[in-house]
Fold this protein.
Amino acid sequence: MAEYFGSRVEDIFNTMPERFQPENVAGVDVRIGYSVTGEGGGKWVVTIKDQKLNVEKVEELPKCSVVLLAEAEAFVGGALGVVNLQDAMAAGKLKVDGDITILGNVLPKAFTPFVPVIRAKDIIDSMPARFLPEKAEGVSMKIGYDLTGQDGGKWTVVVDNGSCTIKDGLDSDCTVVMSMEADVFVGLNTGKISASSAFSAGQVKIDGDIGAAGATAQFFKKFEIASDDKKGEELISISVVNSINQRFATGPYMGKWFAGLKEKKFYASKCPVCGRTLIPPREVCANCRVRATEFVEVGPKGTVNVIDLVYYASPDPLTGKVRSTPYAVLYMSMDNGTPDEMFSHELNPKDIDRVKSGSRVRPVWNEIRTGGIDDLLYFEIDD
Amino acid sequence: MFIQRGQITKDCFVMPGKMALPNQYFAGRVGSNFIISLRDDRKILGVKCPKCDKVYVPPREYCEKDFTKLDENWVEIGSEGVITNYTIVNYNDKHLPRKAPYILALIKLDGADTPMAHIVEGIETEEVQIGMRVRAVFSEKPTNTILDIDHFEPIG
């Protein structure tokens, strides 16, 4: 079976049920398709609905919310965090068909990160490194392991005069041979299965010197999942609300504008040369480059020219709170003003569906007006 | 714009505002490793370009000279270094890490080729000098930021 970075494509799917976090996916209803090419690849469908998980290997992908197409190596490497997903996407080794946000939003919550599956061979191979020569001084024995089932095999562990070596296959002169399912062997070593229950259930068979079998435990340090690998997986991300105090001076013109709002009036400044009405009032007509010293009252109603419908939930810079979406920004020609000078303000969200260019709108005022930015709430359709 | 003579200022006022923006800062894989090492092991790590030997502290993913990918070539850097430049922060704001006045210095750690910005404490602001040797003082509590080094202090 093809392995990439020590793991197989199917490992990622087989471990999904134990990595699933149902409490994190309330209300989620998605079907994610995976099409993994290369040796050990295949097609899988992962369905998350009603906080339940279903993982299925399929011949043909059904209609999915999103489909991930990947080369096996990039897929396994990505799951392990050793392949950069953006690099893989740029290189065309990873493609997403459909709503990519599902992968980013749902998967990290739905599953704990994939960690390599421990196989019997990993444990056998680690024995020389875990060997404690001082505990096995003067001991000479051969311990045979006959492990059946998937990922099983036959190995002989040779302990001789303070050394420990591994041989493939069972030597005929083993001091003791232990036979069991490979899964049981892994469970015993990782602490998922207790030795007493495995023995009493007859899951472990011992041929030869039973005393020697018991002695093996003290010759070796306990098997531990390599902790170094885990360290690199922690990624640091922090949430911060940056809050910076500011002071805005109105000056005389915007001061006049806010004083008008308090009285439910819109004041524009009027250019003495071209006659246009600047709203909100500005000190200078930028077209004629002259001071606009005269104030005229415009509105309060107006006609909509342009509507911006905003779906992006931008934060309000004054409070940091995220705006509710969608919201509409209107560009209006105010009554009694020159029509080319448009005033911009928000629309009452209830009118979003029926506003159009040409709609007549009226201002909606705050009950309590202080001569500030909150005095004018929004505009709504005047009917 | 200043107020012209003759303008009526009775409506003028100053409105307090607040720029409050929610941000999510991701340190990246390289940055995360750097901060985790500060936080858990109190060790300052850099990356060394295998091609030109330039050592970056704080680490970055690519060499700025030859664009070599650097994220595997970690080197441990000592916690002492030298001030290569500094400024005195003389105003207070709530997003700043210290009360004014405080020293913000560029510190080139021994073994590094790039300076990093950090706070210097333990001397009066007028005593700081380019060339002064300083040592990192690590934070008591983890912050998951560069402030896992709390500040630098002069040696001796």
User: Anything to note?
Assistant: Residues 120-219 of chain A form a domain with the Nonspecific Lipid-transfer Protein; Chain A fold (CATH 3.30.1050.10).
